[in-house]
Amino acid sequence: MKRLPIILLAFLCTTANAQKAISVDDAISIALKNNFDILVSRNDADIAKVNNTAGNAGMLPTVAITGTGNYGLNNTSQKLSTGVETNYNSVSNTALSAGAQLNWNLFDGGKMFVTKNKLNEIQALGEIQYKDKVMQTLFEVIAAYYDVVKQKQQLSSINEALNYNRDRVTIAQAGFNAGSMMKSDLLQARMDLNLTTESRISQQYAIEAGLKYLNQLLGKNAEDQLSIADSIPLNYTPDKADLFQKLNSSNTSILSFQKQIDIAQLALKESRSAYLPTFSFKAGYYASQTVNSAGSTLRSSSIGPQIGGTLVVPIYSAGENKRKENVARIQAQTAEYDLQSIKLQINTQLQNTLTEFENQQELLKIEAENNALAKENLQISVDRLKHGQTTSLEVRRAQDDYVQSSTRLINFRYALKLAETKLKQIVSGL
């Protein structure tokens, strides 16, 4: 019966491992289809595309069919210059009209053409912002994916420590039974075994939480079962010159601010069009009829086409046009400042990430050597303990050194992978 939990745990682990592990590329593919932030950003970009029409820019005419009807009941009193007086009581009046009308703004100072160009730029900005959201989300997916891998590796390290603890308990028990070791050594070994078992339980929870967060990023239910890889590939070698060359032409933040400059400059042109005259054209075909129950005119009707135009020449606007132009000019200048600022920030971010990447490479190399030494030292300590040549305290210290080294090694691998992913995100290379 004591072996039942172990057998059950082994069965569950075998079942989990039997699931097909999804690669990080699989996770990215799922996120591109299901991640809600990406889907919302796609809709925002599509809205900008839908808004980019000639009609929305004011370049096309509008046509409408109109119709009105009125009915009135009045008491009328009239006195003519000839002295004749006329009084009508409860006189009804019916008026009906209908028509088809076309309105077309033929010239508005060139504003409609500038507006259409601005809509083109807004659509392009929407696509850049969508790509930026995709890059951000993919970074989060990759980081979450390898965080679970890191947690699984940490669990493996804890399980390895657990095996050493079991060996210590076995050795301490045998030594105590033989009278060569004190009971305090046996008790300490058992306490360490319990503490490591607690760490394993906490680590298993950390893995479950990481998988739930990864499911969230993939647009999947938290309860969905995922099986992922057990290792973190580290085969990336950055080309510094290539990264800096691509920066201004690939980074989505820089491209977004560049596009905002274009939009601001077009908005400035829009404001200047207010100084020019506008001309609109109107044409239609109308029919109307009026019926009176009394009076000199009992019925009147008209039908036929009408055509006309309106010319507006701005003379004085109380400085409103000038104010709008100045505001647009300042906004365009602000957009320039924003671009220079973001270029400086992204350039600094790239340099810092490259430094971080190189540092993590060095730290990983050193810790890999240190980990091998710590493991060898632990094995020697355990062997000495078996032969009664050392104390349980020394073995515990060697085991702690090895566990801490393994933890650092796993963290360095993960940090190096994050630095690699950030470098690729900066140049939109994910």
SSE pattern, N- to C-terminal:
HHHEEHHHHEEHH
What's the name of the CATH homologous superfamily of the largest domain?
Outer membrane efflux proteins (OEP)
What number of structural domains do the residues give? 2
CATH T-level topology of the largest domain: Outer membrane efflux proteins (OEP)
Count of helix runs: 9
Q: Under the CATH scheme, which architecture of the largest domain would be assigned?
A: Up-down Bundle
| Unreliably modeled segments | 1-18
Q: Could you tell me the strand content as a percent range?
A: 15-25%
Describe this structure in words.
The structure is a single chain. The chain is α+β, with helices and mostly antiparallel strands. The chain is 65% helix and 16% strand. Strands 1-2-3-4 form a 4-stranded antiparallel beta sheet, with no helix packed on it. α3 packs antiparallel against α4 and α4 packs antiparallel against α7. The radius of gyration is 40 Å and the shape is elongated. The two termini are 51 Å apart.
Question: Strands, helices and their partners?
Answer:
Layout: H1 4-18, H2 24-34, H3 36-51, E1 62-79, E2 85-107, H4 111-178, H5 183-217, H6 240-250, H7 252-272, E3 278-292, E4 299-312, H8 320-386, H9 392-426
Antiparallel strand pairs: 1-2, 2-3, 3-4
Please describe the structure with a list of short key phrases separated by commas or semicolons:
single chain; 430 residues; alpha+beta; Outer membrane efflux proteins (OEP); 2 domains; four-stranded antiparallel β-sheet; 16% strand
